[in-house]
Structure formats: structure tokens, C-alpha cells
Amino acid sequence: MEQLVASWHNGRSLPETYVLPLEIRPGKLNVPVSTNIIPVVDLGGHDETAIIQQILEASQEFGFFQVINHGVPSNLIDEAMNVFKEFHAMSAKDKAIQCSNDLNKNCFLYTSSHRYATEKYHFWRDSLTHFCHPLEKQIQFWPEKPTRYRNVVSEYTTEVSKLGSTILELISKGLGVSPEHFSNGLTENPKMIVNHYPPCPDPTLTLGVPKHRDPVLINILLQEEDLYGLQVFKDEEWIDVEPIPHAFVVNIGYVLQIISNGKLKGAEHRVVTNSNSARTTASFFVNPSDETLIEPAKALVNTSSPALYRSLPYKDFHSKFLVTSADWKELEKFVRTTSA
Ligand code: OGA
Ligand code: NI
Is the full-model pTM beyond 0.90? Predict the structure, then answer.
């Protein structure tokens, strides 16, 4: 396996292969980049219409919002974050025993990006990835160490999955699409990505993850308390996403952009590193199964609003995403209808 950043970064200066070209380097950090604030939606309120409106507005304006009073117990969130941190703190040897480095496996561990072998420069992160549904089938592929991993993470993914359904139901009501639209194959294959960004010798020169859009319906992200790192690109500037204890950060992915026929936008974001502390995050990607067709919802397509995207199986979209994500326009061309 390529060397995980966690195994070698201590006491080293930033290797040349992690120094990014000027145009994508974050440059100066620690100055507030923007006064814009990602909206925080209280899901505990009783006025559903108001909640839907807040979610739709945030999704259209930023492609991002945070949720509080979301129903996932705080102690479960703390336990899950602890076990994610413990996983990445294990020795490289133990991690390699627990997971494959084969991207086609149900659970695997990689560093930088899916394209390590061919990319021109690398990114400062290690990631553990595994599928979640059906739990009875997937859990056997998950790490057995830390010993609590399977217990805690199965409970965590069950709860976060419910939250995902709630959020998609609110979004479907806001868009005017039947809530059942999302209860079939479109949400059948969620995936966990447990990211780990070790302390970085020079955060101005490199990134944890470069500017991207998630190839998913929505992502429900857990951040560590007190540690900044996630930034959203809006109106040509980067906005920091404040870490709020026990909140989740939700973002619209490119698949939901297609389903909503462009009414919602897959949000562009990146991850900056910091020199003091390791930062761990957990993405819960709400995702279709491979064979599920992704296409604009019929309820959103009519003569005045023709389909902007063609229909294609999720697996075709995802394989194209993997080869083109560095070149966003290529993916756009691939998924657009020819008439658009
Ligand atoms: C991702 C992602 C953000 C973060 O996993 O796609 O954007 O802060 N993660 O780790
Ligand atoms: Ni992302």
C-alpha cells in the first residue's frame, strides 16, 4: 500500500509531491476568508413549512447547511468520532490487516485520492471507506479493530441513515417531488468515508481534498469539535464551515443536482489542513445502487423546463466521475442531454 500520511508525517517537512500548483494552493490561511455563514437549520421545530423553506433556500444559495436537534444522540456521535479517531491512530500494519487497499472491495483504505498512482501531486489525507447497506451483509467487511468499531458504527450508520431519509423527505416536499421518489434504489447504497488529516507541516501549500463536488445525493458530514478545515466555494470566495458540536453538515451532491433537474446545485468544496492537530471527519454518502437509473424527476420536467440531464445507471456516472473529477467540464458533458 502507498504509505499512509499518518505513518510518516511526523517530523518531516512537506515533500515536493504534496506542493500544489499556485492556482489551487490555499495560500494564506487563518484570516477569515468570508463573512458569509452556512445556514444552521433546527430540525427540532414544529413548523415543517418553515424548515423546508430554510433547507431549500440554503441548498439553492450555498448547497450546504448544518442541522441541529436532528435526533441522533450526542453520546452516539461522540462514541463514533472516538472510534473513527482510534482507527486512524492504529499502526499502519494493523490498519492494513483490517482493510484492503483494493478500490473494488467493500471496505478499503487509501491515501490522497483514488488516483494516487497517476496523479501529478498528492493530497494530505488518509481515508477508510466502506458500504453500509444491508448491514447484515456489509458489516463482515468492516474493520474488526478497534473492537467497538462494528457495534458503534452500525448504530451510527443506522441513525444517520434515518436522518438522511428525513432530510430527503423535506427536500422532496420543497421541490414538489413525491417523498417516495427517494425511498427506492436511489438511496440504497450508502457509503461511509472516514477521513483523517494529520497535522501538516505547511497548510498554505497543500490541501486535504481539492475543490470537488460529491458524486452523491447528499452527504451528511460529522466534523470534530473546534477544528476548522472544510470550506465551501461561493461567489468566487471560500467560506469556512464552522464546527458546531454535535451538528451535522449536509451538502447537496451532483446526483441530486441531476434528479432536481438543476434546481439544486452540487456544492463545490475543499478541505484545508492545519499544522497543530490531526482532524478526523466522517462522511455518510447517501447513494444509489449501481444499476439504479439517475435522471431528472418526471415531476420537474415539462415543456418549459426540459430535462437538462440524460438518464444513466449510477455505476456509469460514478466510473466517469472517477476518471474525470479533475476535469469537471468533462463530467458535465457526459451527463447533459445533447439538446441542453
Ligand atoms: C468528502 C469531504 C470534508 C471534510 O468526504 O467528500 O468533502 O471536511 N469531506 O472532511
Ligand atoms: Ni466532499
Answer: yes
Minimum CA distance residue for ligand 1 atom 10: 281
What number of other Cβ atoms are within 10 A of residue 70's Cβ? 22
Three cell numbers at 121?
A: 501531486
Q: What DSSP letter does each residue of 137-161 carry, written as one string?
A: HHGGGS---STTHHHHHHHHHHHHH
Retrieve residue 205's grid coordinates: 501549500
C-alpha dihedral sign at 261, 265, 270, 271: negative
Residue of 321, 303, 217 whose CA lies nearest to 260: 217
Cβ partners under 8 Å of residue 75, min gap 6 = none
Q: Is 122 in the pocket of ligand 1 (CB under 6 A)?
A: no
CB atoms within 10 A of CB 33: 15
Strand 40-42 relative to strand 64-68, pairing: parallel
Contact 215, 132 (CB under 8 A): no
> Quick one: pLDDT at residue 254?
96
Pocket test for ligand 1, best of 226, 281, 287 (most atoms within 8 A of CB): 281
Q: Closest residue (by CA) to atom 9 of ligand 1?
A: 283
Bridge partners (DSSP) of residue 123 are none
| Segment-wise mean pLDDT, segments of 10 residues, the chain, 340 residues | 82 90 84 79 97 97 97 98 97 86 84 85 95 96 96 98 98 96 94 97 96 96 95 93 97 97 94 96 98 97 96 96 82 82
Residue nearest to atom 6 of ligand 1 (CA): 214
Alpha-helical (H) ranges within 99-196 are 135-138, 149-175
Alpha-carbon span 135 to 161, nearest angstrom = 11
Query: Quick one: 172 exposed, middle or buried, by C-beta within 10 A (0-12, 13-18, 19+)?
Result: buried
User: Which 8-state DSSP code applies to residue 21?
Assistant: P
| Residue carrying C-alpha cell 463536488 | 213
d(CA 28, CA 122) in angstroms, rounded, equals 20
Residues, CB-to-ion distance under 5 Å, ligand 2: 214
